Amino acid sequence: MSQMPTAAPPVDDNHNRPAVALDDVPTAAELGLSPTSARLYNQDLAPTMMKGRRWSAYNIFTLWANDVHSLGNYGFAIGLFALGLGAWQILLALGVGAVLLFLLLTLSGFMGHKTGVPFPVMSRIAFGIHGAQIPALIRGGVAIAWFGIQTYLASLVLRVLLIALAPGLADLDKDSILGLSTLGWASFLALWVVQVVIVRYGMDMIRHYEAFAGPIILITMAALAVWMFAQAGGSIALSTPDALTGGAMWREIFAGGALWVSIYATFVLNFCDFTRSSTTRKSIIKGNFWGIPINMLFFGLIVIVITGAQFKINGVVIGSPSDIVESIPNTFLLVAAALALLILTIAVNLMANFVAPIYALTNLMPKRLDFRKASLVSAIIGLVILPWNLYNNPAVIVYFLGGLGALLGPLFGVIMADYWLIRKTRINVPELYTEVDKGSYFYSKGVNMRAVGAFIPAAIISLLIAFIPALQPVAAFSWFIGAGIGAVAYFIVADRKRQFHDVSGEPIAVPSLH
Fold first, then answer.
1. Residue 5 domain flag
2. pTM attached to this predicted model
3. CA–CA dist 230, 42 (Å, integer)
4. pLDDT digits (tens, 9 = 90+) for 434-458
5. Domain count for the chain
6. Per the domain annotation, does 46 fall within a domain?
7. Which positions, given as ranges, span the membrane (predicted)?
8. Nearest 5 degrees, angle CA 41-CA 44-CA 48?
């Protein structure tokens, strides 16, 4: 085990961080701390200093301004209309989910703000310094597949845009190379390169991009709703003729709210990747308040207007706002709307599907990978898996990605029970980076078997709910069931004889440029 410096150590210019001479920095041993291990610590995994953090309430708000308005979310909410829920029922379903998400994401965000560590390191608290690879790789595996899939979906919008600008390009959209046309490959690779370039400038560039994209998408979606309202003659259909009533209606409302939370199952796990650089706890609360319940109410109103307007016009329930964009008769407006959707999809992909695998890979090989190198590895994997073939294969989506997704609830339950209920937020941050066998998070050879033991039964039940048709009636609530079982199981088996100490990570922290 090698000793690492206890204050901001020097790093390469690629990260644009100020260098500190190692000779001027005391070692961990000189400060009475356990030696940090090079297998657990590097510049990107290290805790961030409290001073100099940059993520404000506005930055957190723009995360949600982008992510809530993703095309996938619109497809989900529009699906509620197609299922027979009317305007107020859709708002209620989204409202129930929004309140729960506000609470869950605020608790998760506080963890990042206090410790300053990314999700793989946060997982070491409950699962152990080596056992943390389990939640990190599950989360990263889900994200890396969806990174490729979302890039592919964005490329479909880009293809529409390119053909609108140059109709002759339609001839390049008729062949097939490994499942994608020539124009499809060009569109996919163009968006792939854009995202790689943005991420290689680090988390601070992502912060700037999200802040830039947020207002654009809010204005665009509001304008699209106004345009559709005018197209429908100033009134909309508030429900379909076969609207649900009674018990069936209420079940779909609460199922919709539960599924709305499940959509964010990935984010409630690794929200600390962003809040580790938040300025204050108040900024998290404020950003979440405006970004989740308020923004989701705005989102719900847009869904109701564009869906109700389209249904009134021709009796058809659209699948996504992109369907409306493709039908815009004015080329200039079509191009503007398509560009906005591209900006949005990139923003969502960066925050939801790119950051997590980067930290997971960095945590796997901190000696060899930093943020920039891991970002390139993640992007290459997202390319070579040919994600369009995954997306077009229902078995892959249901069994592989669905199976991994079913494990996120149990992971969340174990991690949150350990942090809030067992330790009561008392964390020895420096010992998250040591392999000393008496370290707080060494457990048994670096793995907390109690956490693994609590996770396994919760994971099995979650998978059964996801895949057994007879359990379909409770499938919408699978995330809550898995998280609840994981939390209760861990609360029962957790070692309460341990002494928990609250030790700041400032001695080994690095400047925050996130």
1. no
2. 0.89
3. 55
4. 999 999 999 999 999 999 999 999 9
5. 1
6. no
7. 74-105, 143-165, 177-199, 211-233, 253-272, 292-311, 331-362, 374-391, 397-422, 447-468, 474-493
8. 95
